[in-house]
Amino acid sequence: MTKDLLFTSGDVRAFEMDEGDIPVLQAFFERNPEYCIAVGAQPPTPDEARDEITILPPAGYPYDKRWLIGFVDANGEFVGMANVLVNLFAAGVWHIGLFIVATSMHGRGNARAIYEDLEAWMRAGGARWSRLGVVMGNARAERFWERNGYLDVRKRHGVTIGKQDNTLRVMAKPLAGGEIAHYLTLVARDHPDAA
């Protein structure tokens, strides 16, 4: 990847991805199928990377920019990716749609270090809140986001991913101080009583 550097995390470099990166992202998903199996009950589809890069959020989800970020190690190997929406639903609310690091890096603190640098980059870009949805039952991911300071705001039931219906834990984290009650005034759809 010879693209502009967004940020670094130790020896890992973060770059913006585009449609030209579909083959490398597809190869990454196929080498690291655990996420797709955990949340969709199937290995990555042949179009997994194309869908991740080309499918936009649903109509009615206002946002300013979508960042598709690839992580490459010192050897030039693609080791992870993130999908981040800027100002989703409200100014200062950034959404992490997907964050995956290579399975070979699990359990060594690499994912946490990359996430911390991603969060710092988001904060520098104006993020005051970060939100995400984690599939209930994906225990590794649930623990990861809890350890990184995310708090439950609501649950969404019947979210189909791949071949599986899931319940999502919608979680949020203040990046510039603040209470969840304030966040819920900004993003009313995340209120626990929202339909």
TrEMBL record:
Chain ranges of the N-acetyltransferase domain: 12-176
GO MF annotations in UniProt: acyltransferase activity, transferring groups other than amino-acyl groups
Domain of life: Bacteria
Keywords noted in UniProt: Membrane, Transmembrane, Transmembrane helix
Record's keyword annotation contains Transmembrane helix: yes
Matching PROSITE patterns: GNAT
Transmembrane segments: 78-102
Name recorded for this polypeptide: N-acetyltransferase domain-containing protein
Organism annotation: Usitatibacter palustris
